[in-house]
Amino acid sequence: MSKFTLKRVSDNPSLWSQDDPVRPELDVKFKTAPGRGVFGLQDQAGAYRAFLCYARTTQVPASVEELEKYTSTEGRIIVPYTVWSYQKGAGREIINKVLWKVKNTDVNVDRVVTLSPQTEMARKFHVRNEASEFRMNENTVNFEWR
Fold first, then answer.
1. Dihedral angle over CA of 23, 28, 33, 38, nearest 10
2. CA 125 – CA 122 distance, rounded (Å)
3. Are 75 and 33 in contact (CB under 8 A)?
4. What are 15-43's pLDDT values in tens digits?
5. Is the dihedral of CA 42, 45, 49, 51 positive or negative?
6. What's the pLDDT tens digit per position in 117-138?
7. pTM, entire model
8. Are residues 125 and 96 in contact, defined by beta-carbon separation less than 8 angstroms?
9. What is the SS3 assignment for the chain?
């Protein structure tokens, strides 16, 4: 049994709006626009240990501009575009919980493909957690989760 609970926290930006180290330039309005949202990973004591921002898209984006362009409430691709954690292992836990949720509760999703920065830390995280590189872009990398 997991010691963490996945919570949709899009409507509570005071929890997450100031701490995104991956895409701090994206504001609350961007992260909570129709077709986008934020999940938090809460521990048993009620503290949040990780956050994940995602979008539903109609195509796999190669940039934040394309993420904005392709976002749609009808999109069949879930795109985690920023993940950060405050506890070792919490980043992996939140992505695994989101993947489980998508695979087991959302029949309108065909794929989960990230929009990740081109950093060694991001690459190691995705490869270690069994995602495969889908495409290298000018400034980002897409990893696909199966």
1. 70
2. 5
3. no
4. 999 999 999 999 999 999 999 999 999 99
5. positive
6. 998 988 998 888 889 999 999 9
7. 0.93
8. no
9. CCCEEEEECCCCHHHCCCCCCCCCCCCHHHHCCCCEEEEEEEECCCCEEEEEEEEEECCCCCCHHHHHHHECCCCCEEEEEEEEECCCCHHHHHHHHHHHHHHHHCCCCCEEECCEECCHHHHHHHHHCCCEEEEECCCEEEEEEC
pLDDT for 104-120, tens place per residue?
A: 988 889 999 999 999 89
Long-range contacts of 30-34 (CB under 8 A, 24+ apart): 30/68, 33/71, 34/71, 34/73
**What residues form DSSP beta bridges with 133?**
143
Residue in this structure with the two tokens 């990398």, named with its chain if needed: 141
Tokens representing 94 are 């939140």
Please give the structure tokens belonging to residue 125. Answer: 């995280």
Residue 53 confidence (pLDDT): 97
* CA angle, residues 52, 53, 57, in degrees to nearest 5: 130
